[in-house]
Amino acid sequence: MIKTLIEERLLTLAPIELTVTDQSHHHQGHAGNNGGGRFTVAISSNEFTGKSLMERHRMVYQLMHDLIPEKIHALSIKAISPDD
């Protein structure tokens, strides 16, 4: 299951809070979707402290790079540090 794989990979960022939501059922038949799922990630981690929003997103995307676009068609990310 892709949701579980995403969660496991995000654990490497030692999250304080982590929610991964599979929204694929809302996007079936969406133009450009060749079978990958649509996921939303909300993660809080000390690893994000002092990092820009773009740097935080890159950290998450680096963990998912091999899953896009075949397994993940779209990924929405909310990445915060405990200081936010």
Question: What do these coordinates show?
Answer:
It is built from two helices and three strands, in the order αββαβ. By secondary structure, it is an alpha+beta fold. Helix 2 (53-64) links the parallel strand 2 and strand 3 (72-80). The longest helix is centred in the C-terminal third of the chain and has 12 residues, at 53-64. The protein is elongated and about 35 Å long.
Question: Which features would summarize this protein structure in a list?
Answer:
3 strands; alpha+beta; 84 residues; 2 helices; three-stranded mixed sheet
Strand content of the residues, in percent?
25-35%
> How many E strands?
3
- Overall shape: it is elongated
Strand order of the largest sheet: 1-2-3
Give the biggest sheet: 3 strands, mixed
Helix amount = 25-40%
Poorly predicted runs of 5 or more residues: none
Rounded radius of gyration (Å): 13 Å
Spell out the helices and strands N to C: HEEHE
The mean pLDDT is: 90
SSE blueprint and pairings:
Elements: H1 2-10, E1 15-22, E2 37-45, H2 53-64, E3 72-80
Parallel strand pairs: 2-3
Antiparallel strand pairs: 1-2
Short structural summary:
With 84 residues, the chain is of the alpha+beta class.
